[in-house]
Specification:
It contains 18 helices and 22 strands. The protein is of the alpha/beta class. The chain has three domains: 2-227, Rossmann fold, CATH 3.40.50; 232-326 and 414-502, 3-Layer(aba) Sandwich (Rossmann fold), CATH 3.40.50; 340-410, no CATH class. Helix 4 crosses helix 5 and helix 14 runs parallel beside helix 15 (429-444). Residues 1-230, 247-496 form the ABC transporter domain.
């Protein structure tokens, strides 16, 4: 499969057994998602043959693949924001004949029943454009489960799930596999691969470089196979003394137009030189907190309480005014809130920074300054992009898109508060190995950092303190000494956090 001069899938031969859980792993841009899109009928390969149960299959559209029993959960969600959860799930699965009424109540009941059965809490009548990223992920999972596909392709299905939700999902996948369903899993989380997969295949630069039983390889060996070099899975995060207060959140409340209260007296502070981690199941107020901090409160929502950035109240300030106070943010939904997908990579690397004098020359932009900045960040953050001056951001893999956003926001001048919402979502182990030290470097330089992540391993590795968010308030906070002491406990600490967020 080729895109212009780029070969995304290069002479791949792969066999996947019926009723198995087969994981496909590799670096960002290795070709995993493209290979899955070929199987799901979204892309037509330049050469090669796809066989399903021994018979050649040629799909001209995803609909044909769906009829053949193939369903795919995409890394980038395929939801219509203006429609409700139930309406999105019933698209293409209307349960009625042409021109006949759609049984909406039946579909709502099906959604509720499936959500309860698989532990995926979601409101069938909620508008998808109002959901958090985690809630959108649950909707995509429900779509796949309700379609009863015999071959299920899951592209990063646990990217926004907590360990408890991930455990329930994997129990479901094992049960489906035992009943003869074939599951193809793409994930960057090596522990998940080794715990749930029967077989795994490793891709590098569009090629399959190895296929083996999951139990025959260690986490370290698998990481090195993926990136083609030795990888350090340990992170040095020495203790330190935080300094002056940068962010103060006092009794913050947030009410939706329909009356639902999403933040209920939320209070915490962050000092210069510390990382405050927020742990919690998606949908417990993380999205609303980010809206308040960034100055993006939707029309009709009511807020109260006080938020101070370096002593300045943020209430009533525009997003650009808040940014001018030294706030930089990596949002949880990059495609919606952080990039313009049709713009080239180079312009996305200065998006939001385009007012900086360094990028100006007279009344216009300095092409030389933009090119220099692009070349530096592409190299420093290992953004896999052959032609950043012309290549649209949407042509990159999800992980490389995320690296563009992280590179841009971590290198802004004059940052006092850095907000990181799921900073390594969809990013491979090699890229995480380079991004995490840069976050710690920013902390040592004196930045105050708010880290919101569903990755408990990431939270415990990076955070100075951790607040457990549940139903819009901090249920429990692990202090600096407690966090430092418990960091070495690993999975035991993760379980303790899990008790406070569910």
């Amino acid at each position: 499969m080729r895109f212009g001069g780029i070969t995304a899938v290069d002479n791949v031969s792969l066999e996947i057994g019926e009723g198995s859980i087969h994981a496909v792993v590799g670096e960002n841009g290795a070709g995993k998602s493209t290979l899955m899109k070929i199987i799901a009928g979204l892309c037509r390969p330049a050469s090669g043959t796809l066989f399903i149960k021994g018979r050649p299959a040629v799909f001209a559209s995803p609909r044909q693949a769906i009829k053949a029993g193939i369903g795919m959960l995409h890394q980038h969600f395929m939801l219509v924001p203006e429609l409700t959860v139930a309406e999105n799930i019933m698209l293409g699965h209307e349960q009625s004949r042409l021109l006949s009424p759609v049984p909406k109540q039946k579909i709502r009941s099906m959604v509720r029943g499936c959500a309860e059965a698989y532990g995926l809490e979601v409101d069938p009548d909620a508008r998808c454009g109002d959901l958090s990223v985690g809630e959108e992920q649950r909707v995509e999972l429900l779509k796949l489960l309700l379609r009863d596909a015999s071959i299920m392709i899951l592209d990063e299905p646990t990217a926004v799930l907590t360990p408890q939700e991930t455990g329930r999902l994997f129990d479901t996948l094992r049960a489906l596999s035992a009943k003869g369903r074939t599951i193809i899993l793409i994930t960057h989380k090596l522990d998940e691969v080794l715990s749930v997969a029967d077989t795994l295949s490793v891709m590098q630069k569009g090629r399959i470089v190895g296929t083996m039983p999951a139990g025959s390889v260690s986490r370290q060996e698998l990481a090195e196979m993926m990136v083609g070099r030795s990888v350090s899975l340990q992170l040095e995060n020495p203790a330190h003394e935080p300094r002056e207060r940068v962010l103060e959140v006092r009794d913050l409340r947030f009410r939706l137009p329909k009356g639902a209260e999403k933040l209920r007296g939320l209070s915490f502070t962050i000092r210069a030189g510390e990382i405050y981690g927020i742990a919690g199941v998606e949908g417990n107020g993380q999205a609303e907190l980010l809206q308040v901090l960034g100055g993006h409160v939707p029309h009709g929502c009511v807020t109260s309480g006080e938020v101070l950035l370096k002593g300045v109240p943020l209430s009533g300030l525009r997003p650009d005014e808040i940014s001018g106070l030294g706030l930089s943010q990596v949002p949880e939904n990059r495609l919606r809130d952080a990039v313009v997908g049709e713009f080239p990579v180079s312009l996305n690397l200065i998006l939001g920074r385009h007012r900086e004098k360094a990028f100006h020359r007279g009344p216009g932009f300095s092409k030389a300054a933009i090119e220099a900045c692009t070349a530096r960040l592409v190299k420093e953050y290992d953004i896999r992009c052959p032609d950043p001056e012309f290549q649209p951001l949407l042509s990159l893999s999800g992980g490389n898109q995320q690296k563009v956003v992280v590179a841009r926001e971590l290198t802004r001048p004059g940052i006092s508060l850095l907000i990181l919402a799921q900073p390594t979502r969809g990013v491979d182990i090699g890229a995480i190995e380079s991004i995490h030290p840069k976050i710690l470097e920013a902390r040592r330089a004196g930045m105050a950092i708010l880290l919101i992540s569903t990755e408990l391993e990431e939270l415990t590795a990076l955070s100075t303190r951790i607040g457990c968010l549940y139903r819009g308030t901090i249920r429990h906070e692990f202090g600096m000494e407690e966090t430092a002491r418990k960091r070495t406990e690993g999975i035991l600490f993760h379980r303790e956090i899990g008790l406070h967020i569910t």
